[in-house]
């Protein structure tokens, strides 16, 4: 039985060789239509990790993430030349530099850029460690996503500013949806989407996992994300899942997880760092994460509490496959921006 899903992005469907038919998602494989469940499914080829002993969880505590006030705040990754990246992100992508700081004591500098203000939109935070010119992106990280109202112009601007075009802008076969792939000056890949104006132009973070079902369950339980869709692509030998805080991928930032059949290991490198997400109660959120890690794996890597030197409360953890997330107190985050 396929759940109703009226909000699935047309360009995302097109990219994965799918189309929407009424309340169903239909995947076309060599002219043979196959229906794909939008709810989480257990598939033999997705069980790459060892079984974890069952753990009885407190249902009341586990309801907290669904009732919490959450959104994607920023995604953090490292670059070899901060000023060069700022110039490229502002001139090629059209982002605005929101803040910049230098921390000599810890030998790093950072910059926050975005398509809107941090109070309400998902942004990027770029980190540069003194003396480090190159980072290893690894094989596990996939790409970021940017939506634009003029993809052809954006591609040409990126090309003119020195970016690499890995897939030219164009309509996917059999549809009018338009996508492109580009790389910034450090080799990070971005998928571009042609869309109407959206509140979240920075719309996606994608990375690979080896056990998709377990990862979906982790992000649903530990972080309260909504599992929007799963698309299985046998011809590409992969399966993709999209999660986020909401139902309409055109209006929210999305976490996209991809599983490649029979791949049991990826390298994470040292370039990509983490996603930061808001919460109204860092301590309660950390307790939920702790319980879920007992069931599914992962670990708390920073106990909840104030960040050293500030009053901003946060906690940090890794999912079962080592991808890092930081939860930040909503009110502390907003106060920090005012300061």
UniProtKB/TrEMBL annotation:
Keyword Transcription part of the UniProt annotation:
no
Which reaction equation describes what this protein catalyses? (R)-S-lactoylglutathione = methylglyoxal + glutathione
Extract the Pfam families matched here: Glyoxalase
**One Gene Ontology MF term:** metal ion binding
Query: For the VOC domain, which residue ranges apply?
Result: 71-195, 201-330
- Per the record, the domain of life is Eukaryota
Entry-linked InterPro entries: Glyas_Bleomycin-R_OHBP_Dase, Glyas_Fos-R_dOase_dom, Glyoxalase_1, Glyoxalase_1_CS, VOC_core
Asked if Metal-binding is a keyword of the record, the answer is: yes
Which E.C. number(s) belong to this protein?
4.4.1.5
Could you name the active-site residues? 191 (proton donor/acceptor)
Q: Which UniProt keywords apply?
A: Lyase, Metal-binding, Zinc
Q: How is the cofactor bound?
A: Binds 1 zinc ion per subunit. In the homodimer, two zinc ions are bound between subunits.
The record's Gene Ontology cellular component field reads: cytoplasm
Q: Biological process (GO) annotations?
A: methylglyoxal catabolic process to D-lactate via S-lactoyl-glutathione
Q: Tell me the route in metabolism or biology where this protein functions.
A: Secondary metabolite metabolism; methylglyoxal degradation; (R)-lactate from methylglyoxal: step 1/2
Q: PANTHER family, alphabetically?
A: LACTOYLGLUTATHIONE LYASE, VOC DOMAIN-CONTAINING PROTEIN
Record function comment = Catalyzes the conversion of hemimercaptal, formed from methylglyoxal and glutathione, to S-lactoylglutathione.
The entry assigns this protein to a family as follows:
Belongs to the glyoxalase I family.
Name the record gives this protein = Lactoylglutathione lyase
Species in which this protein is naturally found:
Rhododendron griersonianum
């Amino acid at each position: 039985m396929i759940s109703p899903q009226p909000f699935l992005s047309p360009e995302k469907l097109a990219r994965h060789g799918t189309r929407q038919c009424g309340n169903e998602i239909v995947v076309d494989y060599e002219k043979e239509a196959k229906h794909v469940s939008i709810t989480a499914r257990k598939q033999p080829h997705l069980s790459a990790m060892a079984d974890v002993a069952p753990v009885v969880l407190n249902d009341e505590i586990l309801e907290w993430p669904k009732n919490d006030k959450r959104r994607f705040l920023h995604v953090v990754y490292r670059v070899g030349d901060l000023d060069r990246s700022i110039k490229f992100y502002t001139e090629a992508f059209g982002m605005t530099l929101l803040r910049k700081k230098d921390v000599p004591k810890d030998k790093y500098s950072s910059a926050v850029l975005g398509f809107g203000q941090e109070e309400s939109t998902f942004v990027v935070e770029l980190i540069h460690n003194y003396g480090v010119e190159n980072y290893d992106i690894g094989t596990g990280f996939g790409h970021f996503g940017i939506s634009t109202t003029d993809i052809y112009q954006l591609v040409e601007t990126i090309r003119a500013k020195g970016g690499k075009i890995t897939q030219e802008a164009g309509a996917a076969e059999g549809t009018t949806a338009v996508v492109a792939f580009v790389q910034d000056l450090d080799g990070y890949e971005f998928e571009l989407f042609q869309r109407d104006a959206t509140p979240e132009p920075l719309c996606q973070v994608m990375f690979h996992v080896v056990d998709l079902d377990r990862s979906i369950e982790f992000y649903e339980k530990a972080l309260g994300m909504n599992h929007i869709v799963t698309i299985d692509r046998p011809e590409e030998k992969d399966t993709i899942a999209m999660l986020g805080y909401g139902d309409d991928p055109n209006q929210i930032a999305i976490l996209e997880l991809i599983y490649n059949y029979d791949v049991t290991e990826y390298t994470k490198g040292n370039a990509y760092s983490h996603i930061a997400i808001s919460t109204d109660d860092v301590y309660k959120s950390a307790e939920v994460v702790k319980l879920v890690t007992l069931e599914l794996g992962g670990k708390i890597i920073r106990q909840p509490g104030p960040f050293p030197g500030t009053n901003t409360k946060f906690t940090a953890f890794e999912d079962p496959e080592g991808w890092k997330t930081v939860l930040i107190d909503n009110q502390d985050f907003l106060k920090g921006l005012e300061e």
